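Form 12-C: Joint structure prediction
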Amino acid sequence: MTDKRRLRVALLGAGSVGSQVAALLREHADELAERSGAELELAGIAVRNPDAPRNAELPRELMTTDAETLIVGSDIVIEVMGGLEPARSYVLQAINSGADIVTANKAMLATHGAEIFDAADQVGASVSYEAAVAAAIPIIRPLRDSLAGDRVNRIMGIVNGTTNYILDRMDREGADFGEVLADAQRLGYAEADPTADVEAYDAAQKAAILASLAFHTTVPLEAVHREGITGITKGMMDAARHAGYVIKLLAVCERLADRADGEAVSVRVYPALVPREHPLASVHGVNNAVFVEAAAAGNLMFYGAGAGGLQTASAVLGDVVSAARRHIAGGVGVGESARAHLPVVAIGEIVTRYQVTLEVDDQAGVLATVAGILSDGRVSIATVEQTVTEEGRARLVIGTHQAVEQDLNETVGRLATSGVVERVVSVLRVEGD
Amino acid sequence: MTDKRRLRVALLGAGSVGSQVAALLREHADELAERSGAELELAGIAVRNPDAPRNAELPRELMTTDAETLIVGSDIVIEVMGGLEPARSYVLQAINSGADIVTANKAMLATHGAEIFDAADQVGASVSYEAAVAAAIPIIRPLRDSLAGDRVNRIMGIVNGTTNYILDRMDREGADFGEVLADAQRLGYAEADPTADVEAYDAAQKAAILASLAFHTTVPLEAVHREGITGITKGMMDAARHAGYVIKLLAVCERLADRADGEAVSVRVYPALVPREHPLASVHGVNNAVFVEAAAAGNLMFYGAGAGGLQTASAVLGDVVSAARRHIAGGVGVGESARAHLPVVAIGEIVTRYQVTLEVDDQAGVLATVAGILSDGRVSIATVEQTVTEEGRARLVIGTHQAVEQDLNETVGRLATSGVVERVVSVLRVEGD
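Section 2 - Result
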C-alpha cells in the first residue's frame, strides 16, 4: 500500500512517556500505517530543553522549543508534557487549528476537561486519553465505546500503583508504612516527595475523569472526596487480614439513582476494606485494576500495569491509530460535551458499610451500652467480635450494615465520649461485598 | 438534538441475546441516540417462528420470517441467530447491500471470518464482534484498537464459563467431574448435550478468533489444537492444589517470533496447570478472563461474565453505537482483510513446561533410571517430589523445565515401557509461570 495519506504528528513533551512514544512511532511505522490507513510522520517534538538527557534516542533535528509553530498544520497532536499550563493552551490551540488530540495528562483533564471537550466538540475534533488513567490498561475506551449501550452504576478502581505497592507489602510482610515507603522510594516506585500518591491527589484526578466519563457528567476535581493512606498502620492491616479483608486505596465512583431529589453521583478516594475473595484483593504490587458494575454487562474488571513510560506509550499509540482513522474518515469526534451536570454528593451523604474498632473497658454491660448508642444513631450491627487485650481492656471490632456516613460519624463521636469507650482505634469503610 | 440522522437497524435472531438486544434498543433509545449521533430505528426482527415464546416482550409487528427483504435498505444489521448458515449468507448479503455488521456469532467468524472480512473490506463496511468472545468483557476492541500501536505476544484466556464452573467447583469442593457436570446441567450452566463446552469446541472457536485478531493473521479453526476437560479427575485436581496450581481450561495463543523458518503462531486449547498466584487462578464460577501479554503494555487482564443474554446484548449494543458513528461519518471500516498467513505450528512443536506424574516401584535406583530417560529425551527436570503411596508403591511428581511437546511425549512413552514405571498417572502442561 503506497498511496496512503500522510498525517503530520506533533509530539509535545519528551519525558519518560514522550521518548517512548517517539521510539514506538518509528519502530512500528509500518504496522501503524497498516492499521491506521495513514503514514504517520513525526513532524517535531516540542521540549523545554533540546539538550536535556533522554531515555531513548531522539533525533535532535526534530526537537523544537516552539510548540506553537509545531502545532500549526499538524493533524494529530500528542500532549505528554503533563501539568496544567502550557499544556491546556497548546491543546486548545491544536483543537482550534484542526488537529485531533491524544493526551496522557490526567491533571489537565481533571481540571480543564469540560473546557477542552467543549472546544473539541465545537470543531468536531476528537480528544483521546486512554493513557491518562491506568496507563496501558484499556479503561477509557471500554467505558466510552464498549459500554456505550449499557449503564454504568459503579466503578471501584485501584488507580495508583505506588500506594498499592505500599499497602500490598504492608499486607504481605506485616511491614510498617514508613519502612515500605522508604523502600518504594529507593526502588523508584515512589517520588522523593510522595504527597501526590500517598495523599491520593493522583487517584482523585483519575476518579474525576472516570466518573465524568462513566456517568456522562462533569465531576469537578474539588468535588472528589480524598483521603490518603498515611494513617494506615500495621495494626489496621493485621486486623483487616484477621477479619478476611485487605486494605486498598480505592477510587469509588457511584451513581445514586434512587435519591428523592433526583439522580446524583458520589466520587471518593480512600483506603477501604476489600473482602479477600473480591477480584480487586488479588491486585498486587504496582498493578492497577478497575472494577466496573454495569446494568447489563454485569461486573467487569480491567487489570494491568498502571504506570511506566513504555506502558503509557502503548496506550498513547492505540489512541493515535484511532485518531488517524478518524482524521481520514472525517466526520466528528466522539463528543463528550453533551454532558449532564449531576450533583456530586458530600461525603456525609454516602451509604456504605463500616468497620469500627474500639478499645473499651472489659466490664459487664459495655457491649450493651455500645450497641445502644449505635442503634440510637441509626447504625445497625452486622458482626461484632470482642477480644480481651493484654492490658485487661477489651477490643470490639464492629462490622455495620449499610449506614449513612454522617450518622456513622456522629455515632462514633458519641461512642468516643460515652465513658465506656477508651479509644476509637479505627473507622474504615468496607467496599465490594 | 432533534435533527439527528435516522438509521435503520435490522435484527436477525430473537433468542436469548436477540430479545435482550431488542429490549435494550428501545429502553435506552435516548442514550443510544445521544452517544451514536443517530436515531436507531429497529426496522424488523427476522425469526424462524414469529409465534415462538420469547424472553422479552417483542412487538409482534416487527417480526418477519423474510430476513432477505429486511436486510435490503438497512444501515446496520445485527446477526445474533448463531450457526453457520443462513447466518453467513445473510451477513454477506448485508455487507454487499451497504450495511455495517454487528455479530455475536463465534462459529461463523471462526469458520468464515476471512471471507466475511474480505467482503467487508471490499465495500468499506465494518464488521464488529465484541459479543462473539467472552460476552460483555471488552476484549475484541482492546486487541483491535487499544493495542493497535503495540505487539501482542501471547494470550491466555478462560473463555468458556461452563468448563470454568465445573473445574472451579471440582477444585474448591474436591468434587468429581460427573457430579459437578450434572449439577451444572440442573442449574442451566451446561447444556443437556455438553459436548461443545466440555470438549472445548466452543473455546477453540474463540481461540481462533482471538489469535487471528491479535496476530493479524488467519487461523483456521481446524488448526487449533483442542483437548477438553472430561479426563480431569478429582485426583489430578488434588495433586494440582498440593503443588500450588489450579487446573483451568485455557485458550493459549502464542506468537513464535524466534523460529529459524520465520514467524509462526501456536493456538491451542487444553486444561493446564496455572500457578495459584496468577491472576487467572482467581477466576471463579462461570466468569471468563483473558490475559494478554503485549510488548509495550505489559500484562493486561480482562475479566467478567463470559455468557448470558443480557451481558452479550450489552456488547452488541456497544458495537451498534460504534457502527452507527462510523456509518454516519462515512469512510471505511477498520479493515481486517490485510492479514498475514502465518503458519500455525502443530502441537508437537510447542514449547512449555510440564508436570508428569508417575506411579513407580518403590525401589532403589528407580529415580535414577527415570531421570536418565528424561535427560536422554531432552527433558530437563525442574522439581521432583516422591511420596510413598499406600500400596507400597511410590508416586513421582516431576515438574519439567521448558521442553518441546514431541520430545516430552516420546520420553513419556519410553518411561511407560521402561519397566520401572507402573503407570503414567497424568501429563499436564503448565502455563503462566
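Section 3 - Comments
Chain B has three domains: 5-133+310-329, 141-306, 348-430. The mean pLDDT of chain B is 93.
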